[in-house]
Amino acid sequence: MYLFSFDKYAWFDRIFKVETNYKLNVWDLIDHLWSIFLVLWESISFESLYQKNFMDLSIKPQVVVKNFLNAKTLEIVHYMVYQNYTSYKNVIELFFDYESIDKLLKLEVSKKVIPHYFDMSIEYRSSKIIFTETKIDWQQLVVFPDLWTMTNYWIMNGELKRYNWVVLHWQSTDKQKNLVFWWIKTWNISTLFCTYSQIFQDWKDLKNIVMIDCHKWYYKSQQDPRYYVPSVLDKFSESYWANIEKYWLQISDWKTI
How far apart are CA 90 and CA 133, in angstroms? Predict the structure, then answer.
């Protein structure tokens, strides 16, 4: 079994291999001797790099959060490591700040349930993207290449601010990101509008993905892991069995009802 450490390094990464008589459930968050670990799987990407990183689990670990990440999320984590030849610490950091896990867990204890407003169903009709007010029983993700594109769209469609949309981008605070992490995980929100760096969430039931201006170079991450967002969203679509729509539209092409 392999564990991801939130506060200990093992060579270049934070992965430890353990053999123990205690039952460890995959996807759980556990506490062992005042250190937090995420139980990954019995196999991981590039296993040969982690064979010497053994850790003693002679003392029984305590479960902090059950199913902290779901199976589909961890499938994407393993995919990102393998596809981009990178480390687990670099990939998991895309989902949450593991060095501030205590702040994330404190919000989980006292997380607020926000009211369910009507969300927007999204479809492509007559060369226009149409937003229709309706109640949806699944989650959807709308991705913009940059904050400028998102901001200009909001300026041109100011009347849409009254809907219960959740918006994330690189200027969002850590607290805002942590709250949205729990809201998505517990299905307190259904629609997330974000720039590309905020697509990595522990989705409960993602069924629709919309990607705006796919030609923009911003969709190619310039830092490790150097991922290409359209390819990652294709993996999201495959893992969650979600519909995906990719548009090459300018701001003037948008229409709302």
Answer: 38
